[in-house]
């Protein structure tokens, strides 16, 4: 975060560009005219039209981009809303306005500016230097032509020329900054007393009249949202296992022999060594001297094996191991092939005769032997059978998934042909809402929320598919939905259940709980306010029920309930201790403010690093938007009635 604020000027340009340009739509002014001239017009800037095809294409690309960024958590119905569609159309209009303004004012970017901008993009660099390979990979992955991307960069640089002079001159007055810094970093030491609504609920009495009146007034809050009951099939490892042929004893034995190394524990030996180096280009006498020295060392080691580490330290020419007792570690045969005969020949631990390897003699100490063993077939039969089945299931899954994909494209009116062909069970759940799974008391039997497959229906893409035009309204099977590479499903709406308000008798207990909660919270607030008035009038006296001291500031406790944080930090502090009360979701609370501590140097530094530049950047972006709106007034912008229909289309149709 700190680094991003250090480079806030670059960040500001990025923010501006994102605000005014759909960053993934490579449309120039000419491109806006490339669609069918008979297409429905939603807006126009002078003589340049923005059509429904353009809007749909760019909006679809935006939704797909969000799908990729958010994965299974993406819920198109929460994003594809009239408000967001309206904002998107405004963005397209602003984009066209600014492009026209650039043409009018002759703002442009040279080829050299474009090249420098691309070369300085971190995503296209390797060790701080421009990498053509990374740039090409970026374009290939997004299926973008280099000329289109360069035009996009050129447009961004031109936008910067148009808006940066406005946004880049933003300055927040020092006095304002100082006040904000103090407000954000000042600390207050408080003690809290809570009045929990739940403590009052048990004593609340509710009459039938109150119940009826509350229901009539608030029944819309009890509405059960529209939901669907779902038939579906799942192809996964378990389903593939059901299609696997029986595994015979002969199959198991053959698999065991083929993979015997997998079930073999190799013998391992702890080996230490002393290396006696033969000088490079040694004559016969020098070679004999090295051999004699190795024999001498071996004899000393045999006479006193426990002193091998000291001998290694004294005599070994291997600088890497001599100070570690000559240790080569615990080896299996083949780890150091040249040592196999000497190290694994003896049957028991001990000292070997010197062995020559390349240009050195080695005296080995076999310090310990871990015996190898082969797990017998009889002990592994069940494990091997499962391994074979899983292997076959993996192969079957590939074939079954191909078949499922083919069938799902031709069999759209029933899941039964798919289930029969692939030996899959048709499963059933109820209560799958567009935004979430309904609780069991609303969903009824086979509630998805309590199903073993609940996680499937918590995937936004599955609910998005269920409420699509084709599946929800036309009653078709969905295509194959990939939950994971090894889990595929096809869904079908068995029943569409419209939103409805349940009868009072069906939700009486819920209504009673709501009334008790409201009355409990009301009583908690009344008692809290009464005690607060007493404390303000008579002073703290003997405080009871207040908790331990805690320190609060806006900078470090931004996650606290806003009502609590604002009440404590806004309370006058000229006469301490001071008392302030505030409502909370769970009741009411009183805070005794005991001490106010002015910001520390560390807190002020945090503000300067993380918030000051964010304020400048945000203010600059707002100014840029304001300037864009002013420019828009000079460019004969028209929004046509057909835009309302497109903006208010049913979510999830993209």
How would you characterize the overall build of this protein?
The protein is α+β, with helices and mostly antiparallel strands and about 650 residues long. The protein folds into four domains: about 1-170 and about 610-645, Porin chaperone SurA, peptide-binding domain (Triger factor/SurA peptide-binding fold); about 185-220 and about 505-595, Chitinase A, domain 3 (Roll); about 225-245 and about 380-495; about 265-370, Chitinase A, domain 3 (Roll). Helix content is about 50%, strand content about 15%. It has 26 helices and 20 strands. Strands 8, 9, 10, 11 and 12 form a five-stranded antiparallel β-sheet that branches. The protein has a four-stranded antiparallel β-sheet with strand order 17-5-19-18, sandwiched between helices. A four-stranded antiparallel β-sheet has the order 14-6-16-15. It starts with a helix and ends in a 7-residue tail after the last helix. The relative contact order is 0.16.
């Amino acid at each position: 975060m700190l680094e991003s604020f250090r480079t806030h000027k670059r960040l500001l340009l990025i923010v501006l560009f994102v605000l005014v340009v759909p960053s993934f739509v490579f449309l120039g002014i000419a491109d806006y005219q490339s669609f069918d001239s008979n297409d429905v017009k939603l807006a126009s800037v002078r003589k340049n039209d923005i059509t429904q095809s353009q809007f749909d294409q760019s909006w679809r690309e935006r939704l797909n981009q969000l799908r990729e960024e958010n994965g299974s958590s993406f819920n198109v119905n929460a994003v594809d809303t009239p408000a967001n569609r309206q904002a998107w159309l405004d963005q397209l209009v602003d984009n066209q306005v600014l492009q026209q303004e650039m043409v009018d004012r002759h703002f442009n970017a040279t080829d050299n500016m474009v090249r420098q901008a691309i070369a300085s993009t971190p995503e296209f660099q390797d060790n701080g230097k421009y990498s053509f390979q990374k740039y090409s990979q970026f374009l290939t992955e997004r299926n973008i032509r280099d000329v289109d991307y360069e035009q996009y960069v050129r447009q961004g640089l031109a936008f910067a020329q148009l808006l940066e002079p406005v946004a880049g001159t933003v300055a927040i007055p020092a006095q304002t900054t100082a006040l904000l810094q103090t407000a954000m970093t000042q600390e207050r030491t408080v003690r809290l007393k809570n009045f929990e609504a739940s403590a009052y609920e048990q004593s609340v009495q509710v009459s039938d009249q109150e119940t009826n009146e509350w229901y009539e007034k608030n029944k819309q809050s009890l509405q059960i949202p529209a939901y669907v009951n779902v038939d579906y099939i799942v192809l996964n490892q378990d389903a593939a296992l059901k299609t696997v042929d029986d595994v015979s004893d002969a199959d198991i034995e053959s698999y065991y022999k083929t993979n015997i190394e997998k079930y073999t524990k190799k013998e391992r030996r702890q080996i230490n060594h002393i290396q006696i180096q033969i000088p490079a280009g040694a004559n016969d006498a020098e070679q004999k001297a090295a051999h004699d020295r190795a024999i001498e060392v071996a004899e000393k080691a045999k006479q006193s094996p426990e002193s091998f580490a000291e001998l290694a330290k004294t005599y070994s020419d291997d600088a890497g191991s001599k100070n570690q007792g000559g240790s080569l570690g615990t080896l299996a045969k083949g780890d150091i092939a040249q040592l196999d005969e000497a190290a694994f020949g003896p049957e028991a631990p001990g000292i070997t005769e010197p062995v020559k390897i390349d240009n050195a003699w080695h005296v080995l100490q076999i310090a310990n032997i871990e015996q190898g063993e082969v797990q017998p077939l009889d002990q592994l039969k069940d494990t091997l059978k499962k391994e074979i089945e899983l292997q076959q299931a993996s192969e079957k899954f590939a074939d079954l998934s191909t078949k499922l994909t083919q069938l799902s494209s031709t069999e759209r009116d029933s899941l039964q042909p798919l289930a029969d062909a692939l030996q899959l069970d048709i499963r059933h759940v109820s209560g799958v809402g567009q935004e979430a799974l309904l609780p069991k008391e609303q969903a009824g039997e086979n509630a998805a929320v309590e199903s073993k497959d609940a996680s499937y229906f918590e995937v936004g893409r599955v609910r998005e598919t269920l409420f699509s035009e084709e599946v929800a309204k036309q009653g078709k099977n969905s295509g194959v939905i990939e939950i994971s590479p090894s889990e595929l499903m096809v869904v079908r709406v068995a029943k569409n259940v419209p939103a409805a308000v349940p009868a009072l008798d069906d939700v009486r207990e819920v209504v009673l709980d709501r009334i008790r909660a409201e009355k409990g919270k009301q009583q908690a607030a009344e008692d809290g306010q009464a005690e607060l008035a007493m404390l303000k009038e008579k002073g703290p006296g003997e405080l009871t029920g207040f908790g331990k001291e805690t320190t609060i500031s806006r900078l470090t406790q931004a996650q606290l309930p806003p009502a609590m944080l604002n009440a404590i930090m806004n309370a006058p502090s000229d006469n301490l201790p001071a008392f302030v009360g505030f409502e909370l979701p769970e009741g009411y609370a009183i805070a005794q403010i005991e001490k106010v501590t002015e910001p520390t140097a560390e807190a002020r530094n945090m503000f300067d690093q993380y918030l000051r530049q964010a304020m400048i950047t945000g203010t600059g972006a707002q100014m840029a938007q304001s300037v864009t709106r002013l420019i828009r007034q000079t460019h004969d912008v028209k929004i046509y009635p057909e835009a309302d229909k497109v903006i208010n289309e049913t979510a999830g149709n993209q």
